[in-house]
Write a structure and sequence with these properties.
With 108 residues, the protein is an alpha+beta fold. It contains two helices and six strands; from the N terminus they run βαββββαβ.
Length: 108
Amino acid sequence: MATFLFLYTGVGDTMAADDAERAASTKAWGAWFERIGDALVDAGNPFTPALKTISKHGEVSDASAPVTMTGYSVIKAYSHAIAAEIAKDCPVLQDGGQVLVYETFPVM
């Protein structure tokens, strides 16, 4: 079984605006994670919009990305295709976001 990183993209104005919307969003994510079941390795967390880049010389800069990453999760699945099928039901899609599905591989 392989491990996959789900990176979530979206824009800041799609975040829940009030307590009721936040509660509904939290419920949707919880239900999705429950459906994933044992395949869920790490539910992850959302990202802030703050971004720093570090050059090969160690220089640190504030930056902006062409696509805003808003969070991540880690799952396990038997194939990239199965991981993508799991991602199709992700709540971020309801808010106009996307899920990028990367397969990881062990090196350490």
